[in-house]
Amino acid sequence: MFEATEINIRNKRIGKGIKFSFLLMTVLLATPVLIILAVLIQKGGPMISWDFLFSDPTNGMTAGGIFPALIGTISLVIVALIASVPVGVAAAIYLSEYAKDNWLTRIINLAIINLAGVPSIVHALFGVGAFVLFFKFGTSILAASFTLAVMTLPVVIVATRESLQAVPYAFREACWNMGATRWQTIYKVVLPNAISGILTGVILEVSRTAGETAPIMFTGAAFFLPFLPQSVFDQSMALSLHLFVVSTQVPNVPEELPYGVALVLIGIVLLMNSISIAFRFYLRGKKKW
Amino acid sequence: MKDIAVQTKNFNLWYGDFQALFDINLSIKQGLITSMIGPSGCGKSTLLRSMNRIIDRLDYVRTTGEIHILQHDIFDPKVELVQLRKQVGMVFQRPNPLPLSIRENILFGHRIHAGGKKSTKNEEDEIVEKSLKTVLLWEKTKDRLGNSATNLSLEEQQKLCIARLLPLKPTVLLMDEPCSALDPKGTEAVEELIWTLRGEYTIIMVTHNMAQARRASDECIFMLMGELMEHSPTTDMFVTPKHEKTAAYIEGRYG
Ligand SMILES: Nc1ncnc2c1ncn2[C@@H]1O[C@H](COP(=O)(O)OP(=O)(O)O)[C@@H](O)[C@H]1O
Ligand SMILES: [Mg+2]
User: Fold this and answer.
1) Are residues A184 and A260 in the same domain?
2) What ranges do the domains of chain B cover?
3) A110 is a domain residue
4) Considering the domain boundaries, does residue A192 fall inside one?
5) Which stretches of B36-76 are DSSP H helices?
6) CB contact, 8 Å: B82 with chain A?
7) What is the CATH number of the domain that holds A98?
8) What is the pLDDT of residues A219-274, one digit of tens each?
9) pLDDT tens digits, A38-53
């Protein structure tokens, strides 16, 4: 009575075929990532040592470590975070909680979407014009970080807005109906419930800028500067630029050196991503609805 | 005229180009429970949501006519929405406790209107106890006030949603199908609770449940396609409906 008919069998076969082809795509997609990681670890792994991480480059960058570049990249990311988070989060709160759906809001949204599509080299030029020259920061960590911050603002805004929008509308209604103002509603209910999403999203997005080269090349990253920056007004080396330099600009670099640098760079990004994901899991566990 | 809590005069409402309410004229008596019935989409929620102007959130909504609450025009430019919403509380179809503790839920309204002035713990305890006692939830929750409100049963959540309005000392309570998410037992419990609030508060309750309207209200309003068809004492409406369409609806011939 319950045996499969012709049609059942055929449908099942089609379903299996489709599932298999999707699986194939997934494998194809994951392969390059795994190969990259494998090659980096195989070739660059032996480079990684205490000395490599914590000493200065020597011999015209063909030997020694990457300490100034490591510190430079970390500073750039941190300053970029400090610069983009308040602006991005405030803008997202405005757009999500206050803005009415009119032509101005639509233009702003359109601008944000388009800003996300601007190539990073264009951001670099903007950074030179705005931060290096107009605001007279000079080529410095500050100028480079601000350039990175502008570049990541759209994604910060989008990530924040999504977290805000994930807070059920019923909570807002409940507040308004007790006579809460918009700000009271945001401050007491919406933000506390969105903050985990906002923070993790933002860390994730901004840490991606650790790998950017173009926007910092003209605005603050130095080719070779074997000492640490003293303030945000100094230039500094950065891992991404250092990788570019040792791979293409300097003769007689041992083959593993660039792989070592790349491995550290990827390591930093992966580390920040894992922190952010762990943080998200931790906070999700505490969620109250 | 002193005993009229809510009065509307030729009230019309449009969502964009779509007119949802047509010339609504009604007077709701203070201290009574007035139930509002009618088929889905006839504008019950819309009318209710106009009464505390929560509908203002939608910028494509336009209204004409007047709504008076306690003889005050709520569309007067001098009206402060915060004050209006304090006076006119709302309970929703789906219980929507805030993702805070039971205690914090009750104190939420109180605190946002305190203007930074801190109440002592004693005062706060008193507010919490009094509100929860009024909604018959005190015995069940007094030992776990710090627990999250979203872990309560739906019935308890809905009672909490009523309780958290009380510290604001509202005069009118708007309830939009407050029992429709609850099981029969929960419905009965919340209905009983609503009945105990009768007298102290003016209650307007939308319901889909004829039996509920019949046993739990003093007066009844029947709406159809954005118009107010009939407003009479509940006993009259269910025994001798004035309007043929009311009779048809009550008997379940459409809905
Ligand atoms: N936010 C809205 N935007 C546009 N139309 C709406 C909106 N809310 C309700 N309506 C329309 O207004 C009419 C009345 O809806 P509502 O007041 O929710 O009815 P009821 O509560 O009686 O079921 C319906 O036709 C509905 O489609
Ligand atoms: Mg409704």
Assistant:
1) yes
2) 4-94+171-250
3) yes
4) yes
5) 44-51
6) yes
7) 1.10.3720.10
8) 988 887 877 888 888 888 888 998 998 888 888 888 888 999 999 999 988 888 88
9) 999 999 888 888 888 8
Q: Are residues A83 and A24 in the same domain?
A: no
pTM assigned to the model? 0.82
Looking at residue B1, its pLDDT comes to 46
Distance B181 CA to ligand 2 centre (A): 13
Q: Which residues does chain B have within 8 Å of residue A97's beta carbon, measured at their own beta carbons?
A: none
Assign residue A252 a region (left: φ > 0; alpha: ψ between -120 and 50; beta: otherwise).
left
Share of chain A above pLDDT 70, in %: 99
**B19 pocket-lining for ligand 1 (C-beta < 6 Å):** no
Q: With an 8 Å Cβ cutoff, is A177 touching chain B?
A: yes
Residues A236 and A107 in one domain: yes
A288 and B150: CB-CB below 8 Å? yes
Split at pLDDT 50, 70, 90, the class of B201 is very high
Nearest to B221 by CA among B6, B75, B1: B6
- Tell whether A20 is covered by a domain: yes
- Nearest-5° Cα angle at A199, A231 to A285: 140
In sequence order, the 6+-apart residues with CB closer than 8 A to the CB of B66 are B8, B9, B10, B11, B73, B75
Ligand 1 pocket check for B15: Cβ under 6 Å: yes
Atom 20 of ligand 1, nearest CA residue: B41
For residues A59 and A40, state if they share a domain: no
Contact state of B112 with A184 under an 8 Å Cβ cutoff: yes
Q: Does residue A198 belong to any structural domain of this protein?
A: yes
**Could you give the number of structural domains in chain A?**
2
CB of B99 shorter than 6 A to ligand 1: no
Residues A17 and A107 in one domain: no
Q: What percent of chain B has pLDDT over 70?
A: 98
> How far B77 CA lies from chain A's nearest CA (Å)?
17
Q: How confident is the model at residue B72 (pLDDT cuts 50, 70, 90)?
A: very high
Do A156 and A264 reside in the same domain of the chain? yes
> Would an 8 Å CB–CB cutoff place B90 in contact with chain A?
yes
CB-CB contact of A237 with A224 (8 Å):
yes
User: Which residues, other chains included, contact A253 with Cβ-Cβ below 8 Å and sequence gap of 6+?
Assistant: A61, A62, A246, A247
Is the predicted pLDDT of residue B229 greater than 50, yes or no?
yes
Question: Which of A265, A244, A263, A266 has its CA nearest to residue A253?
Answer: A244
Record: contact B99-A193, CB cut-off 8 A = yes
The CATH number given to B4-94+171-250 is 3.40.50.300
Determine the structural domain holding residue A63 and report its residue range: 50-285
Size of interface A-B (CB pairs under 8 A): 68
